[in-house]
Write the structure tokens for this entry.
Amino acid sequence: MYQAIVVLHVLGATIWTGGHLVLAVTVLPRALKARDPAIVQQFEGGYERLGIPALVLQLLTGLWLAYRLLPDPAAWFGFDSPAAAHIFAKLFLLGCTLALALHARLRVVPRLNAERLPTLAAHIILVTILSVLFVIVGVGFRTGGVL
């Protein structure tokens, strides 16, 4: 069961991070050059059908893995062990990602036009950086690495 959960977690990470890298590196520059938010919106319309479930999958499998590693959720918010530090880092990154997503969904996207496209671009770049950091911290679990 553990291996299946790890595979699902990594699969979700590849979809989430890969999709944001494609968005940030290929789609966003075209949209900014053309000053056309519809280019981003078209990509997002298709990607969200896979990206959002991938993020939810990561959340559920990540919580399961964290609980398996440290059964006391209160320990997730300390730095008493490398595992606790990694779990806290992942939860922090998740909180930042969710805050950016909510802000974009509630404040940026409803008012999106060519002039406000740079604000959306900043959100996209930040979420992409956060998703790469998720991967780096996650690799640290297996390599004894990052924190």
Notes: Residues 2-143 form one domain. The mean pLDDT is 92.
